[in-house]
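Quick start: read one record
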Amino acid sequence: HGVNNTELWLGNYQEKGLHWDVIQFNHGLHDLKQAYDPKTDTFGPFAIPIQTYQQNLEKQIAILKKTGAKLIWCNTTPVPTDIKSQYGRRKGTPETYNNAALEIISKHPEILITDLHALVNNSPTFQPWWKTQDPHFYKPEEQQALGQAVAETIKKALENLPE
């Protein structure tokens, strides 16, 4: 979905005033979804298999680089527990996808990284969240912590932009 829509989402970035200075990107939580079958107590295939995920990441990077923007990849946040639903996700899968993504990102050392995965793993702010069955963050203090981490990486990217 991301590769197919990136050009649309970017808009007419070549038109004066519509350019991008910084772009942060990630689609991990969507790509690692697995439908859960309660009858068999099993998870189906990933929405996007790992190898395809890596190929899509390379394609998306190529599209984003055409903008001339400073790129930031944001790794995927953890999943608190196995989520057994139509849009199921399994605990530990984000680490697998993050490692696969880092194989690609490491080929592009100019891309900055926002490490939200480590933030969620290590910050006491997220301790209550670990008891939920939701991979999203709704509490204001969670959103503030995540937003602060994103803002810090964006500030770093802006500091290194040419005048």
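The CA atoms of residues 1 and 111 lie 21 Å apart.
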